[in-house]
Each structure stands twice: as C-alpha cells, then as structure tokens.
C-alpha cells in the first residue's frame, strides 16, 4: 500500500488487463477510487483512446461521478506492425499504431489537463517504453510513438508545472503481459531474455504498478517531466 492515495480519483486507460489492471489494483489497494477504461474486457468505461469524442466522454464520466480527477494513467497501447522493415509497413498499420500509442496519449492528456487545470492539482502518468529511448528495428512505428510520448510528457510537464500538475512517464522493458509474450515468442528471441536483460527476467506488471503508485503519490511531489526506465538494466549494457 502506498500512502497518500486515499480518497483520490484516478482513471487508468488500457485498464482491463496487463500493466493497466495491475496499476488500477494497486491504486485501489492504496485507497483511491479508480475507473478503468478500455476498448473491451472488464473495464468500467469503454473507450477507444484514438477517438476524441470517446475520450471526452470518458473524462466527463469521471467528473460527473466524482466531481474531480486527481490521477490519470495513460497506459492504453498496441504492439503495431511487429517484425516488418519500414518499407513493408502499410500506411493503415502505421496510422493505427501512432493513433493508439501517441495520438491516444495526446487526446487523453488534452482532456485530463482541461479537467485538472481548474483544480490546480493533478498527476498524469504516461506509459512509454524502453523503446522510447532505444531503436526498435523490428517495430519502427511503435518506437516512433513511444519516443513521441516522451516528448509530449516533457513539453506538457513544463507547460503545467505552475498549475500544480505533475506529468511523468514510465518506460518498461519486457513485462509479463500478452504483448510481452507475443514479442518473446518471436523466433529471433528464442533465448530471451538472457541477451537483453541483465536481471535475466521479464518484469511482473505489479513491479510497474509500484512505480506508478509512487509517482501518483506526494512522495514524488518534486518530480515532473521525468521518464523512469524500468527495464532490468537493459539500457546500460
């Protein structure tokens, strides 16, 4: 349990499973009120983050029920056209990957920040990736989007720091989720994770949730515009 989340209102996109579900559960355990949003599954709100009317409706639902929004976790994401050379990526594949992974974060932040600005208080946590720092030769669309998430995070953090809103990013490496399983099943990664991760294992989603809970709490009150890598040492080898 993380102290300081009691009574706060949070929304978590991509919250039906994986990292998003783990974050939602951690927030609930710490006393927050949490609404999960997803395109399907056991979420509280159905929302395609690449669709602005649906995003606006999601935030309006939170405000309508609870009168405020204290914490937003923009976690929804897709793998995109994995395993293709750039010249092989179809425009529709590119648009979908960028639409969910980057435009979706932009749209969510746009409406979250509008809600939080009137409160002059709030925390936004964006889920980028280790591929927001590194090249992703098997998925340039995903890497481009996740680099973009870091740019959005830093730029918005500067714009809204004076309004009492903190904005940070978490950049996981491989995590034990459906997406992580898909990547790990690729034949070229048959000996995964030994060549990639000094710790020699994937992260458990709960480990990412612990970071999110800390970022959401007042324990990180002087932290904004940061991108926290959670990759088991991948980037230092």
UniProtKB/TrEMBL annotation:
Pfam families the record matches: adh_short_C2
PROSITE patterns xrefs: ADH_SHORT (PS00061)
Superkingdom classification of source: Bacteria
GO molecular-function terms, A-Z: oxidoreductase activity, acting on the CH-OH group of donors, NAD or NADP as acceptor
PANTHER family, sorted: SHORT-CHAIN DEHYDROGENASES/REDUCTASES FAMILY MEMBER
Similarity comment text for this entry: Belongs to the short-chain dehydrogenases/reductases (SDR) family.
This protein's name: SDR family oxidoreductase
Species whose genome carries this gene: Sphingorhabdus lacus
